[in-house]
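Appendix B, record 7
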Amino acid sequence: MLNLVIRDLARGTGPGDIVGAFINEAKIESSQIGKIDFQDNIALVEINDSVAEKVAKMMDNNKIAGKEVRVEIDNDFKERLKYIDDYVNNYRYLVQLERKEEMRIQELEIKNLTGKQRENKGRAILHLRGRDQGQGFAGKSLVKFIRQRRGEVLPDTQIGVGDLVMISKANPLAKDNPTGTVVEMTNYSITVVFDKRPPKFIYSKGLRLDLYVNDITFQRMLEALGRLKSAQGRLAELRDKILGLKDIEFGEDISINLKNKLLNSSQQEAVKAALAAKDLFLVHGPPGTGKTVTAIEILEQSIEQDKSILGTADSNTAVDNLVERLVKRGRKVLRIGHPARVTPLLREHTLDYLINEHPKYQQAKQIREEAYQLLEDQKKYTHPSGRWRRGMSNSQIKSLAEDGRGSRGIPAKRVKEMGEWLKLQDKIDSLFTRVDSLEEEAVKELIDDAEVVCTTNSTAGSEVLAAETFDLLLVDEATQATEPSTLIPLVKVDKAILVGDHKQLPPTILNQKAESSGLARSLFERLLDVHGSEIKSMLNTQYRMNEQIMNFASQKFYNGNLLVASEVKDISLKDLNINSFAGNSPAEQAFNRQEGIIFFDTQGMEAPERSKQDSKSIYNRIEAELSVEIIKHGISAGLNSNQIALISPYKAQVALIKRLLKGEEIEINTVDGFQGREKEVIILSLVRSNRQGNIGFLKDLRRLNVSITRAKRRLIVIGDAATIANNSTYSNLIEYVKFNGYYYKL
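Structure tokens (predicted):
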């Protein structure tokens, strides 16, 4: 028996419909038909070898149960279907694990800590009252929250513009507490926008506001996985190529007229290869190689080909970077996403900003005001609730009202009022329908008018873009996004180009089981594993670091393939004209040496790592104090505060150094938080110092790669060589510094 696959079946089609169609149309016997299995609108039919080809030919584009179907012989279909099911079910499971973990962490803290403790941690604000601030785009409610005592300043908080927050009165864990997005903050108030009209208690006193988890992204991931599973047409082809069930395809190389004439040869090759790819393509951009510049050229070339384009990234910062560069190139960009999460300078390119000027939106605004006035007028009349309705339908109430009659013990006057209420409701419904229609038309026109639509991966799955499809998707910083996150925009497109660097840090996953089971692996990495180097083009010339800083990363992470641009090959601190001191202290040597990379080894000192009882993070006070000394010396030597930064793998170390440097405007961040950034001088505090040689999550060498590729002119590493050299790569780093930089044993 062979397998026939029948696609596009009508809902409710059963085995009898298929058997009947085969007998009547293909003129075969029922005994020649075997088992029939269904999967959504697809059927797998076993059929006798001798008639399989005949049936496929007769039934393809014929009708079964009144609907035209596609039929083909496919003996591998069952195995492919199982592979797709396993893929989707596995990621659904991992997404749910991560979702539950994120909620568990938040809810556990809300449950175990008092409101005051949460407020002290900066994750809640107590004793608030709400004030109605009218409406924003699409009639969303704005509420300003201030302290109950007039003129009282809000406490220090982690909560910021763009965060999702939850409002409660008595029970912060109640399931029906409303959530909204922070759109404005002052010393005295915090303004929140709600997608749905919030409950009345929100305008009272005694309110609590908590930083909360955004569940919508997880729901959009699950929805994208569902669409992938049941995909047909072009999306089914892309899915099969993502999973390695089909090979990727390339078209002929095309000659292009570069928009940016400064692109180097590897960037030009990447652009050409990306444009020639028919399905999927990867642009691999190591640190400083200009991957976003290359991405912009790909987008501009695609605009010239009249493609509809969606540009995304996992973070708002990365999306804004794309938007900013496109705007500078004079391109018409539409940034979709909450304006509160968009860089202020780019807000004039957001949908919420542009739609306010659109004539159809202005018309919708006037009609909405008219509808709200009618809602106020309705309050004068009796609402036809259960008490007064007494089983009567709307049409019965209207008929009685017109005749001036009462019914079922309800006075005629009351019936007339209910009739007036219903008349107004009909008008209100009609007006709001018109409002929705005008707003949808305005949004559609703005999207169609844009050369590139930019948004986060998550927002690509929003209602605003629900009906939209695109010729091309470009995902920037694609290696920082989970595979399900990237699928959210991918299910809307015909072709996808992913730009990133899988040798740098992966997405952050909270649930350890989800992380170890593959959720931290990006789609970029999957495609590279499945299709090999054919699908990738690597940018090989970097414009950030001097050669001495670059070489170790090139050798260890990029097979020695990185080249240094001539303009940065020999850059050093001398170019900044800072003062030189002849002293021998570590702080003085950090700046008076000529070498580009320096390692201060603390193994000869008493510099043990420590951790607080209530924290898993680690700090090292000796390293922190030395870091502060070096920073202060650098500033006194003439460095600007924006030219130097300190990074460390550990949050506790970052917090300690911030306390020690209070008052100084120096950027101090975790390695993870500094990815994608650069400074003239970087101080890296590795923290780990113990007799066991335990280096913890420093073992993830992608974190080391990020750490040592942020500095342009001077990289200063502080660490205990006896501890970190237990790892061969860190040992190699120390040896590299000894031979090529400056190694100093404290």
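Remarks on this record: The mean pLDDT is 91. The longest strand covers residues 124-135.
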